[in-house]
């Protein structure tokens, strides 16, 4: 009898477990089916926008008069912008292809693998259509190429993998994209439809977010998004040149990021990794904005011990062959980690700042190194700089008891060349304080910016088109929102500051690496943060003041001065900035001076 009871009990328990497992499986299946259904709606909505874009591009390719060309372009662009939040996230490379600037795209893997591609896509179409004499054949060719790429994308859509965290990343990327490249005129260079296109993308965000409305546990948070988007739509009005970008970022973008972080918590989302922007960032201009590991080959976080070790190595003169120079010889803290010389001693170019140097993807003026660690090797080996090598570095350090103990503590290992490079690079990566007057004000920590400084920022990011190369918030050539590439430009820097007998500087820049003719005189776009401390300016130190720099740009760069440059990437047209506007831009640039390094104490 006892046996029978046990047997019946086991049967009951087994049946209950089976039923429970079945119920849980059904719940999981129902959740997955619900998630798949939302993804299907997202894919269908996105696909519809692509198909409409394709249809208008098809009409564009068959048009032969200016009125029809303009009409069909604007319709195609409208639907492309509606698709942008999703397209830029799920297929960033094709998005870049379709929305690239109208300049040659050159890829140089090595001397045997150089690709030179003519641009195509919407920016090219805009420049070709909205001109006094549109070239029908050229426009038709670009319309067909653009349409074909979109058709390929549309035929290969598969959103089955989309998870809630993908949706949240997509939303945040578009908020950042609108702020950093949308409202600046980066991708609407002729029409300057940046504000109306910002409205289109924010409206699209509302539609995409609505698909995932039931992900919100707190529906008041969803209502907050509706209100925030409506506020942004109302703000994105007016005329391009007079638009207050400072107010938009401070009052909309940053508030959107705070709301986004609340949504992450509400959706109970866990991100599998961190992209260029930290997952908890609530500002674009903060020390906590960027994930430093994104810009490094190393995935370990910075520590105070590692930074201080790197700082001591940075100032160490015993490591040079002459025992008289250190990294700080050419990168002086009081001069914004530059040296104040036209051309630095022992080299052929001006010494750039190291502040924010860790937040870029290319190093040296010609981008020849892909990491800080690689740059350090070149400097050490240069016979006109350290005139040493890493082996000699290593041997010198091994004879110093403090270094031996500190390396062991920091890296749990003995001294080696990799750790030496990484320690110095870690110190340089720490030099990104984001505590300038401008940063403190846009982060609402202070309220001290003058009208001139705010107007200068709005000019810098608007009429003057400075941020189409010096992208905020780093104000260097590292391109938002992926921050995967640091661009080089040909702006036509002259040999001397002589406005009458103007000649291009002899330095061929990037060309010297691979001898690609189309790369002559190309140089990396460096940051203008702390520019008040880093005179003289340009790779050859040709300009002594910011007034001279602004005058050069205002005239259209080298081409505007009369230098014949086939591949100048800076528009050759005069900016027509007034003297008052130039003063305002300089006032803004001065507001980018950091208050202090904000790094660990020296040893």
From TrEMBL:
A Pfam family assignment: CCP_MauG
Coiled-coil ranges from the UniProt annotation: none
Keywords, alphabetical: Heme, Iron, Metal-binding, Oxidoreductase, Signal
One GO term describing the cellular component: cell envelope
Signal listed as a keyword: yes
Molecular function via GO: cytochrome-c peroxidase activity; electron transfer activity; heme binding; metal ion binding
Highest taxon listed in the record's lineage: Bacteria
Domain Cytochrome c: 451-593
Family matches, as InterPro entries: Cyt_c-like_dom, Cyt_c-like_dom_sf, Cytochrome_c_Peroxidase/MauG, Di-haem_cyt_c_peroxidsae, Imelysin_sf
Compartments in which it is found: Cell envelope
SUPFAM superfamilies found in the cross-reference section: Cytochrome c
Keyword rRNA processing listed: no
Protein name (database record): Methylamine utilization protein
Organism: Aestuariibaculum suncheonense
């Amino acid at each position: 009898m006892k046996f029978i009871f046990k047997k019946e009990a086991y049967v009951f328990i087994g049946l209950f477990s089976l039923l429970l497992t079945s119920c849980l499986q059904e719940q999981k299946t129902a959740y997955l089916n619900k998630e798949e259904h939302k993804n299907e709606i997202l894919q269908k909505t996105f696909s519809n926008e692509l198909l409409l874009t394709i249809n208008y591009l098809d009409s564009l390719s068959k048009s032969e008069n200016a009125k029809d060309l303009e009409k069909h372009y604007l319709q195609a662009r409208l639907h492309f912008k509606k698709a942008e939040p999703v397209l830029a996230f799920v297929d960033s490379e094709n998005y870049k292809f379709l929305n690239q600037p109208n300049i040659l795209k050159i890829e140089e893997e090595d001397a045997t693998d150089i690709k030179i591609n003519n641009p195509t896509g919407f920016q090219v179409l805009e420049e070709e259509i909205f001109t006094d004499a549109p070239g029908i054949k050229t426009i038709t060719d670009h319309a067909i190429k653009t349409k074909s790429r979109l058709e390929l994308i549309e035929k290969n859509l598969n959103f089955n993998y989309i998870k809630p965290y993908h949706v949240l990343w997509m939303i945040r990327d578009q908020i950042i994209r609108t702020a950093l490249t949308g409202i600046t005129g980066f991708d609407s260079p002729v029409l300057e439809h940046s504000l109306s296109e910002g409205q289109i993308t924010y409206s699209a965000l509302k539609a995409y977010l609505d698909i995932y409305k039931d992900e919100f546990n707190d529906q008041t948070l969803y209502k907050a998004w509706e209100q925030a988007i409506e506020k942004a739509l109302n703000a994105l009005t007016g005329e391009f040149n007079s638009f207050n970008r400072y107010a938009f970022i401070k009052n909309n973008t940053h508030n959107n990021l705070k709301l986004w972080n609340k949504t992450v918590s509400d959706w109970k989302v866990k991100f599998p990794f961190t992209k260029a922007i930290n997952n908890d960032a609530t500002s674009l201009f903060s020390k906590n904005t960027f994930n430093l590991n994104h810009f490094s080959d190393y995935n370990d976080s910075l520590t105070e011990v590692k930074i201080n070790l790197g700082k001591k190595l940075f100032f160490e003169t015993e490591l040079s062959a002459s025992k008289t120079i250190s990294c700080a010889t050419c990168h002086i803290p009081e001069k914004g980690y530059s040296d104040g010389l036209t051309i630095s001693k022992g080299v052929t170019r001006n010494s750039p700042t190291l502040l924010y140097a860790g937040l870029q993807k290319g190093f040296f003026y010609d981008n020849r190194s892909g990491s800080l660690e690689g740059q350090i090797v070149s400097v050490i080996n240069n016979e006109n700089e350290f005139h040493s090598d890493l082996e000699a570095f290593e041997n010198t350090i091994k004879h110093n008891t403090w270094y031996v103990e500190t390396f062991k503590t920091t890296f749990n290992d003995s001294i080696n060349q990799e750790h030496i490079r990484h320690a110095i690079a870690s110190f340089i990566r720490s030099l990104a304080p984001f505590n300038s007057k401008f940063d403190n004000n846009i982060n609402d920590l202070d309220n001290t910016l003058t009208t001139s400084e705010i107007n200068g920022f709005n000019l810098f990011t608007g009429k003057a088109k400075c941020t189409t190369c010096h992208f905020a918030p780093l104000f260097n050539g590292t391109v938002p929102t992926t921050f995967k590439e640091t661009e080089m430009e040909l702006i036509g820097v002259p040999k001397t500051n002589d406005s009458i007998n103007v000649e291009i500087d002899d330095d061929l820049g990037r060309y010297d690496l691979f001898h690609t003719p189309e790369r002559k005189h190309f140089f990396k776009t460096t940051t203008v943060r702390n520019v008040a401390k880093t005179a003289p300016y340009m790779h050859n130190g040709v300009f002594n003041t910011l007034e001279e720099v602004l005058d050069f740009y205002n005239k259209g760069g080298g081409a505007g001065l009369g230098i014949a440059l086939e591949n100048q990437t800076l528009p050759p047209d005069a900016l027509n900035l007034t003297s008052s506007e130039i003063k305002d831009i300089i006032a803004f640039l001065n507001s980018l001076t950091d208050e202090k390094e904000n790094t660990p104490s020296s040893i």
